[in-house]
Amino acid sequence: MTTEPLIVNAIINGEKIQTEKKIERENPAHPEEIVGYAPNNTREETKRAIDAAYNAFKSWAWSDVDDRITRMKNAIQKIKEATPEIAELLSREHGKALYDAQGEIAISLMWMEFACDHVKKVIEPELKEHENGKTIITHDPIGVVSAITPWNYPISLSTIKIAPALLTGNTMVLKPSPLAPLAVSRVTEIISDEFPPGVLNLVNGDAEVGVELTSNEKVAKIAFTGGTKTAKHIMKAASETIKKMTLELGGNDAAIVLDDFDVNDERALRRMVISNFLTAGQICMIAKRVYVHRSIYEAFVEKYIEAANKWIRIGDPFNPEVTVGPVNNKNQVQYVKSLIEDAESKGAKVIKLGKVLDAKLMDNGYFLQPTLVLGADPHDPIVVEEQFGPTVPILPFDDEEQVIELQNESIYGLTSSVWGEEEHAVKVARRIEAGTTMINTAAVQGLDVRFPFGGVKQSGVGREYGEDGIKSYTETHVINLPN
Ligand code: NAD
Fold first, then answer.
1. Catalytic site residues (predicted)?
2. Percent over 70 (pLDDT), the chain
3. Closest CA to 172 of 155, 136, 196
4. 33 catalytic residue (yes or no)
5. ipTM value for the complex
6. What's the structural domain count of the chain?
C-alpha cells in the first residue's frame, strides 16, 4: 500500500485535467497523513463540463443500447480488477474499516450489473393497439444529468446514478463531496475511459460548483444525494428551468422493538447493533433511535449492551479486527459529541460501548467511541435530529399508537425497522411513513438493489435502485397513430 499522496483528475470531454488550487484530503484515523489531492474546479470549468455533456448527448442519446451495455460491462470488469487498490484508498480517505470499503464496492458492482441486465426491459418501446388506432410509448433519455453526491458512501452513491443514466442514453457531470473525492474519482475515471468523450465528466469542488450544476440551463436532471438543507437550495436553484430531480436525503430512522421481541435472540441483537454502528453510524438508513416496549426495556438494554460489546471493536480501519473506524471529519465528531453532551446535561445516562483496540490512536484521529444514551426525552435533539454518528438513544414506550406517532412525527421518512413476531411487526410496519421498512433487521443490512429505495416527506423525491431507479432517467414519449 502506497502512502504517497495520490493526485486524481477532473475529466472534461474525455480530457484529464488538473487545477492549481486543490482539495486536500487527510486520513481521519491519522489526520497528519495527506491521502491525496483532487482538483478544486471553478464554475468556468464546470460550465465546460456541462457543455461537453450537452454536445455529447446529441449522438449518445441515439446510440445502440447493446453498445452501452458492453461499455458498462467493460468498466465493471476493470473496477473488479482494481477493487483491492480502490478499497484501500476509500478506507484511508474516508475512515471506514477496510471490510466496509470492500462492501461498498461490492454493492456498487452488484447494482451496475443489475442496471446492465435490466435496462433493455425498462426502455423497450411499448406498442398498444386500440379502437382509435395505434400508440407507441417510448422511454427516452432526458439529457444532461448533474449528479451530486455526499461523503459517506461516495462510490455506491455515485455509481447508483452513473450506471442507469449512461445506460439509458443520458450524459453526466458528476461532482463528489470534497470530504471523500479520491476513490470515487478513480472509479469515475475507469468508467469514463470506456465511453465516448463528454458522456461522463467529473468535476470536484463544493457549493460553488454545485450551484452551477443545479442552475445551468443545459442541465435537464439533477440526481442528488445529501442533506435535506442542501436539497432546499438545490430545488430553488433548479426551479428557474424546471429540472427533473431525484433527491435522496437525510433520515432519522427509528427501530421499534415490540413486546413480543425475543431478547435472547442473539442474531437479531447483533443485527440491531450493526444497524446502529456500521460505518460509525454515518449512513442515511441506519437506525438512529430505538424505541423498546417498556415490558422488555430493561432486559433488552442489558442484552443490547452485551451484543454491542461483542461486536464493536474500534481502531485503525486497516486492522482486520476493527469493526468501527473513525468518523469522517472533525465537524461531524464535534456535532455528534455536542448532541451526546446535551442529552447528558439534561440527565440522560451515557454508556460507552465496545472495545478500543488502540487508545493512542483515539486521541489523535477523528474517533468517537460508540455511545448508548438512556433516559433522553423523546424530543431531545439526540432523538429528533439526524445525528449521523456512532451513538444511539434507546427509549421505552408504553403503547403502539404512541410509538407510531413518535416515529411518524419526524420530518424524515427514509427507512425504519420493526422487531418482534412477524405478523405483528408487519401490522405495525404498515402504519409507518417511510420508503422502506425492515422486519427484524434494518435497511442497512437488508438492502437489495433489485427493489426501489428512497424516502417520503423531507427524506427525498423519487427512487433509486430497482427498475424504478433506471426508469427515473427516462422521459415518456407517446406517439399516436390514429385510424
Ligand atoms: P451535504 O448536503 O452537505 O453535501 C452533499 C453534496 O452537496 C456535496 O457534494 C456538497 O459539496 C454538495 N453541495 C453543498 N452545497 C451545495 C449547493 N448549494 N448546491 C449544490 N450542491 C451542494 O451532505 P453530506 O454532509 O455530504 O452527506 C450527509 C447527508 O447525506 C446526510 O444528511 C445523509 O442522510 C444524506 N444521505 C442520504 C442518502 C439517501 O440515500 N437518502 C444516502 C447517503 C447520505
1. 248
2. 100
3. 196
4. no
5. 0.97
6. 2
